[in-house]
Amino acid sequence: MYLAKVRGTVVSTMKAPSLTGCKLLVIEKLNEDLTSKGTTEIAVDAVGAGDGEIVLVSRGSSARYIFSDKGSPIDAAIVGIVDTVEVTPSR
Q1: What is the rounded CA–CA span in Å between residue 54 and residue 56?
Q2: pTM, rounded to two decimals
Q3: CB under 8 Å to 36, separation ≥6 — which residues?
Q4: N or C terminus: fewer CB in 10 A for the chain?
Q5: 81, 55 Cβ separation under 8 angstroms
Q6: Per-residue pLDDT tens digits for 19-48
Q7: CATH topology assigned to domain 2-81
Q8: Which residues on neighbouring strands pair with residue 80, listed in sequence order?
Q9: Distance between CA 43 and CA 68 in Å, rounded?
Q10: Phi-psi region for residue 60, left (φ > 0), alpha (ψ -120 to 50) or beta?
């Protein structure tokens, strides 16, 4: 899993039937200090995230298990909305 920031939405009129009704969001990957890693991707939203929110993203086969259809073509799923991040500084 990793942290990301929601940057926008994707509208798709034609998609796999198992994705019907799923909200697709553009996310920007973040470092632990919430700075950008400079890469974006599309993720399926499972929690009702909105633009600008910091989210927790699951990838790979585990992302598919969030939804009822385990065969869905999902590689990334938003599984949480982050309230705070606390990182202990290295010594």
Answers
A1: 7
A2: 0.90
A3: 5, 28, 29, 30
A4: C
A5: yes
A6: 888 899 999 999 999 999 999 999 999 999
A7: OB fold (Dihydrolipoamide Acetyltransferase, E2P) (2.40.50)
A8: 56
A9: 16
A10: left
